[in-house]
Amino acid sequence: MTDVTINSEPTAGDSATSSCCGSCGTGAAAAPQGEAANRAVFEVTGMTCGHCVSSVTAELKKIAGVTEVAVDLATGKVTVDSTAPLNDTDVAAAIDEAGYDLTARLDG
Fold first, then answer.
1. Where are the beta strands (DSSP E) in 16-93?
2. φ/ψ of residue 47, rounded to 5
3. At a CB cut-off of 8 Å and minimum separation 6, what does 64 contact?
4. Residue 23: exposed, middle, or buried by beta-carbon count in 10 A (0-12, 13-18, 19+)?
5. 74-103 pLDDT per residue, tens
């Protein structure tokens, strides 16, 4: 299992006390370390707190071959490392299941 680190420091315009469920602060996960065989970067909207990050991460890790997920809460950028190229439909379905919207694939 891969750990996700969340930086609880608020960024400009964020409030440490505002979140979607009130149970956590806001923050960003560290980017995956090292080079992955396959890396895809997506833009996701609707995330506001660490709970949102955890939900997106958990759903993406259910996709076969996903080895690591990093979410930058401030930008909505989600980086996914995997053993094989990801199917964008699978990624969109996982993000939808978590309750958020996939708005773009940023890596090409």
1. 28-29, 38-45, 66-72, 77-82
2. -80, 135
3. none
4. exposed
5. 999 999 999 999 999 999 999 999 999 999
